[in-house]
Amino acid sequence: MSINATLIIQIITFVLLIWFVNKVLWGPMSKLMEDRQKRIADGLSAAEKGKHELELAEQRAKDVLKDAKVQAQNVLSQAEKRSTEIVEDAKVKAAEEAERIKAAAQADVEQEISRAREQLRKEVAALVVSGAEKILNKEVDAKAHNEMLDTLVKQI
Amino acid sequence: MSSENLGSVEYIQHHLQNNYVGSGFWTFHLDTIVVSALLGALMIGVGMYVGRRLETGVPGGLQNFIESILEFVDKTVKDSFPFRNPIIAPLALTIFVWVWLMNFMDLIPVDLFPYLFTIVTNNPDAYLKIVPTTDLNATLAMALVVFALVIYYNVKFKGVVGYLKVFLFHPFGKFFIPVNIVMTFIEELAKPLSLALRLFGNLFAGELVFLLIALIGGTLAVGAAALFWAPLQAVLGLGWAIFHILIITLQAFIFMVLTIVYLAMAHDEGH
């Protein structure tokens, strides 16, 4: 029970033990635990960040949706406008076409009329000549009376 | 057992005698040295075993257990040691675990190892005291190391002059220098002594109670009386052992906390 040299051995043991504990137990373990704490903190902050980003993304999605709606509205109204324009245009074009067709028909008719008139004139001239031949009982020289016939034809 | 051929005083004395070699100052308590070294080796062994398979993710059973001890010690250090010194926490951990393990030897039935030892050595009078903390040498050794650290950090942070000033002007100011010297001297000396004697005293007394309880069955039980005394011994032994779990933990904790507090005082420059 008295103090003796055991004390010295115990002191050496104790000091060595402190050194060993620091080396194999405390050092690696506390480093590991610090690392883990850091990882947990990182994970938590990452989760927080993720949540924040999700909120932002939701906000952005809402904005995009709103934009899209507005644009769709625009497109729709434009399309309506354009369709009415097209209809108007078609109407105008149709009217023009009708006018043109009408004009062409008229021209045709007039041409036909003039051609018929020409025909008629020729026939009348021939008729007049043959009629005059019969009346006079002699041949009329068409060439000699051409001038007179022409004026006659023009009067018809 | 030995109590059969010895009186109760001899029985107790026999159990409180270390196995030693040498004489005078150069006596070595082999049992104290070997048991404490083995327990230290156990700490290192477990530390290395766990250290080699450290798991950063979810820790397994043993690692979890050690981590909880580490965290407990770390928290205690942080609570009462406001400075930065990387040696304090491992020191506190060593003290807590080592002292606890040495104290735990007290819970092993008092006759078990001495009895086995007499068989192994084939010497019925072989001494063996397996609780190192009931040897004042073991507790004083730790206390002196702590004391050396206290003086070292006092000198380091206050300077030699600053530390001497504490002796001169503390606690009563400059008009009571002789009184101050005596008071501070006693105060400083009381630190290692109280550390060593508190642990030693508690464990020694605890061991003594275990021995007394062991005596109940050993010496009083003769014939039919054994029917009464043997169960009494068992009940008392169980009760004291359960209570002792608290004591050994508490003593290890107190040793650790006081070490931290003393070292914190040593670091305090304004003291």
Describe it.
- The complex is a heterodimer of chains A (156) and B (271).
- Chain A is mostly helical.
- Chain A has one domain (6-155).
- Chain A is built from two helices and no strands.
- In chain A, helix 1 (6-136) packs across helix 2 (146-155).
- The longest helix of chain A has 131 residues, at 6-136.
- The radius of gyration of chain A is 60 Å and the shape is rod-shaped.
- In chain B, 75% of the residues lie in helices and 3% in strands.
- Chain B has a two-stranded antiparallel sheet.
- In chain B, strand 1 (20-23) and strand 2 form a beta hairpin.
- Chain A binds chain B through residues 1-11, 13-18, 20-22, 24-30, 32-33, 35-36, 39, and chain B through 16, 18, 22, 24-29, 32-33, 36-37, 40, 43-44, 47-48, 50-51, 54, 56-57, 66-67, 70-71, 74, 87, 89-91, 93-94, 97-98, 132, 135-138, 140-142, 144-145.
Number of strands of chain B: 2
How would you name the oligomeric state of the polypeptide chains in this document?
Answer: heterodimer
Distance between the termini of chain A: 170 Å
Described by strand count, sense and barrel closure, the largest sheet of chain A is: none
Mean of residue pLDDT of chain B? 85
Overall pLDDT score of chain A: 88
> Total number of helical segments of chain A?
2
The overall number of domains of chain B is 1
Q: Helix and strand string of chain A, N-terminal first?
A: HH
Structural shape of chain A: rod-shaped
**Shape annotation of chain B:** globular
The span between the termini of chain B is 56 Å
Class by alpha and beta content of chain A? mainly alpha
**Strand residues, percent of chain A:** under 5%
